[in-house]
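Work through this protein:
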Amino acid sequence: MKTKFKILILLLLAGLIFQSCHDKDDSAVPVVKTNLEVQNFIWKGLNLYYLWQADVPNLSDTRFANQTQLDAFLTGYPEPETLFQNLLNKPVSLFPNGDAIDRFSWIVSDYLVLEGQLQGSTTNNGVEFGLSYKSSGSTEIVGWVRYIIPGSDAANKDIHRGDIFYGVNGTQLTVSNYQALLFGTNNDYTLNLADISGGVITPNGRNIALTKTVLDENPILVNTVITAGTHKIGYLMYNGFYSNYDTQLNTAFASLKSQGVTDFVLDLRYNGGGSIQTATRLASMITGQFTGQVFAKQQWNAKIQSYFDANSSQSLLNLFTDKIGTTPINSLNMTKVYILTSRGTASASELVINGLKPYVSVVQIGDVTVGKNVGSVTLYDSPDFGNSNRNPNHRYAMQPLVLKIVNGLGFGDYQSGLVPNYDLKETPSNLGVLGNPSEPLLSLAIAKITGTGKRAQPSPGIELDYFKDSKSINGIQNQMYLEKAPAGLLKAL
């Protein structure tokens, strides 16, 4: 008996030792997620809110007879991100060659990061840049500094608007490695700079070491008044529709108003979008004479649209306003506005242009815009998909497209971008100083305002084919979003 007992004890100890070693060996092996909380949240949120819900068979209301069938389907997607992409309507991740329908929906594993991004808070070294192909047909790319964010690490370094960089840590940037080099997990890197001469980009030996930190960007980069003859021209460079800066935006317009501006130039060339509410307020600051009239209309998927039409059709309207809360808006009462754009101008920026057109004369100068006429909302894993009573077991959140937006006349079909009245593309070799009357885009606006036809003539420079820009790939993703999801829909539908 004692011998059998000893053998049993030895077997138990051996089993424990084996299990302990097994656990240590498995520590680097990905764990298969058997809990379907996140997957259920993704499916149910998209089934209710997704703009193209009716076009995705797996999101159909009749696709699954019960929760058991749905769970069996979701079990095939252990990674939430894969499920999300497969439930979208021809997403750009799966249709990268121009056939995509959904170019902008995305999911995050930490909603705290997402919330910061939507308010202009990013992990950033302060260099906002464009990326272009080094030459026609090449897979090599170069970057060019558009502006430096004040208060950032880059603001204390010898790097400025117009500087060209070709590599990171000595490695040439290409279409296949730029993401890892510029937006990877390493917050410290060195940009390798170059010169442009005679159409040739040549390394110049300058290297700038940069460190990313959590950075809050005030979207109001330049706010000034330029006197040209009898004209007092207000100029505002506005780089993001971040609602937590709406009060500062209103103060900026108070300054312009107090100086008696006669004309107004809004620079949105580096603005990838943001809050629909902020866009409505900005349009109201530019004008002021249209309070209560329709700035924009929202169009949702069929089942949500029918609910709104029957119960709360006014909820689909974004009206010009004269207040931020109880604070009066400072309006310029303009009847004509000049707006500067680029290939990076998107979403809420395009909404301002399109929304103003039925009411005032809009003169667009620059390049064709992105063409994002659809908006999103943040969905959380909570009883009503809002940010209250969120599931404490994870921090996943979605930013799916949920609505198309049109102006007061019902026009919103600008998927290919808004075309400027006067085409003038920036060249990396001659960007000019932002806010200076000689800067090429602003100079052209001033010439059109004064009617002189004279503008500063930029020196010849090479024009590089646009690839991407830092804001469109730094988490922001050209956003136009509602502040929160409409309440009560889950019970009503």
